[in-house]
Amino acid sequence: MSQSGTSRWRSKVVNLPMERKLLLVFLVLITLPLSFIGYISYSNYSRSIEDNTIAYSTNMLGSMMDRIDDYIEDMMRISSIPAYQDDIKQNLIASNSYYEQRAKVSGDDTTAVPLDFDLLLSIQRGIEGNISFINNIKRGANSVYIFDQYGNGYYSTQAGGIRSNIKESYRAWVEKVRDSGGEAHLISTQKYTNNLQNVRYAFTVVRKIIDNSLQPIGLIAVDANISVFEDQIVELDEVTHGTTTIIDEEGNVVYDSDKQLLATNIKGQPMAKLATGQKGSFYLEENGQRQLYIYTTSRDTNWKVLISIPVYELTKNSVVIRNVTWIATFITIGIALLISIVFSFTLTKPLRKMMRLMRTVQEGDFSVKFPVKGEDEIGQLGRQFNRMIFRIDHLIQDIYQMETKKKEAELAALQSQINPHFMYNTLESIRMAAELNDDTDAADMLSILGKLLRYSISDLHEEVTLGGELNHVRNYVELLNYRYPNRFDLVIEVPEELMRMSVIKLSLQPIVENAIYHGMDDSSRLLIAITAEEARPNVLIRIRDDGLGMDETTLTRLNRSLGGTERQAPKPSSTGGIGLRNVSERIRLHCGQGYGLQASSALREGTEIVMTLPYREGDRPL
Length: 622
Hints:
By secondary structure, the protein is an alpha+beta fold. It contains 16 helices and 17 strands.
């Protein structure tokens, strides 16, 4: 908001009636605290829900991940069973030996040598019987595959159906464990179609089968259907109203509640990038909705489980509390508004009554009286109002009587006053008589005296130029030189452009008069120099004499007097004219407190008075 707009708004508020100001104050005092309390309550409640949800979900995720780790660890133990089953190892060795001999005899043409069905059936029964036993050890291990070194597979399933792409799967599994020494390798969820043409998702534990001489004799792969996660994750999603995703270290999706991301890689997606560290939480905007992500990492597999919870689910209860708070706030404001209206009108009614009485007084009727009904502030104000009206009425009567007497006195003074024109005409007649008698000095003195008298007794508030005031000073010094022949030298150095500036009438002559009567020495001539200069934003006029000067104490008292801090000047003028203090006070009244006179002097070296006036463009009066 601009400064002018702010000023207008502040002016409107200041000019509001009292009852509206009170209503505004009541509303602010009620609305702001209630709104602040409601906001703080809502924020704290929402933050508390989020913190509790994060803590609870993190604990649940940790517990679920521990159970998944235990399950995978059991799968890894299951994959190590063939290493301890001599029957499986002997049959694998037999299978490897048979296919090795067959390869040597037939070369590339395997159809040239007939199959030994009895041997193959014996090997198959020996291995697959043990596979059925392995399948029954752990729920969820629904497919177990055992291969010899030539990729010939033996398998058994619980849920029915084996991988239709078993050859491709075998080659991928062999590649995964190529460099291992018999350790189990966990492979993330893969999508496949079984021989019943059903789509399945499973994660797999693969391990080389090692004989007693630590030589690889085959491969075991244990498929676990992702349904082993379902029960735990469904329970977690129901509690949190969110969705759960499990990813491996490479960003492959092991499990997804919505089944939309299974067996895909989401390493480049924001939720995978932000899930750094062992555990934590973060917020993410998805499809126009803000989601809270909470995640933790398996200590064994380094799989990450992330749960995504819509923020509106977290704040659903807090929104209800917020709405209830706002409703209660508005109801409270409404009730408070009614109470404040009654209270403000009750409080301002006496003030409005007093305003009406004041208007009546303004019209000149002092007979009104405010009805005082209590001893509170309004009652005391009314009592003082009645006293004030009574006192003003008496003062007006007194002033009226004083003005009547003053006018009578002025009339008497006017009747006894000599007409100034009569004085000018008389002086002119005397001057003409002196000239007729060839007394030129007397004629000149009378002419100068007439000019001085005419200038002095005219209106003191009349505006004059600096040139006119200096001309009056010249006449004054010239007249004194007739009285004291050749005792005073006057030097004036003022720029022509300053001659037109307006000054206060009779502001320089009292200073020159003071210099003559207090600085004159009987044995020498007195030089008086008047200069003026611009010192923007001021104009400085200096009146200097080479007379007797004054000591430090007298100078200090004089400057205090000129500054208005001392009641009397140290040496008031004995001539009865306008003194230095009077001139300084008149300048301050016209121009302000920063202007006036300032004296500097030294004993036997003369005195300088500096007059400071405001600089004004053109010829404008002070």
